[in-house]
Amino acid sequence: xxxxxxxxxxxxxxxxxxxxxxxxxxxxxxSKIAGSFAELLDLKLAQPNLNDFEREVYRRAKEKxxxxxxxxxxxxxxxxxxxxxxxxxxxxxxxxNGLYYEKAAPLKPGQSxxxxxxxxxxxxxxxxxxxxxxxxxQQGNPELLRDPDEAAYRCLERSGLVPDxxxxxxxxxxxxxxxxxxxxxLKDMPFDFKSDDVQACLVGAGIALAVL
Length: 212
What we know:
Layout: E1 3-4, H1 6-9, H2 37-45, H3 52-64, H4 69-85, E2 92-94, E3 100-102, H5 113-126, H6 131-140, H7 148-158, H8 168-176, H9 196-204, E4 208-209
Helix pairs in contact: 2-3, 6-9, 7-8, 7-9
């Protein structure tokens, strides 16, 4: 099992073609990325490297208080078209909370990891930008929790998927620690981690499991 987070990968679409850096250390429980989603939008709007579509989406979101599903869908439609034009069609799965998961694609014969990532990065830059990350905060992590495991756990709680007695500590251990002697603890969770509802919470927290 490989686990990746926004902190390590920046954008979840990059998971499709490659693994990335090791997970970042866990933040203090309850630590937040920003005081509000509006504040987070302001931080993004202050960045000079946004594409025109992305900047307009954030401006609309500032006016309406949230990013529209239609804008997020349009960004991914543009991303998919960009990848197809470059000979790298993508397979996207829409989860119950409106987020997309990009299914893993193998490297082509003779294609290097760097070449594949260059294509992904080029398409992201002119289409989705930071929208996957921002929409994931809105849909799956409205508390803007810094720790992705805590964000995923709280989402699972809100969705009624966490049984009594199953703690955040147990969840974090299952997500990060192998069993004694090796092997993943994911199957020991009291819910099906591959289900769409659970995956919606994981992707909403910026986590992608490379077992899907």
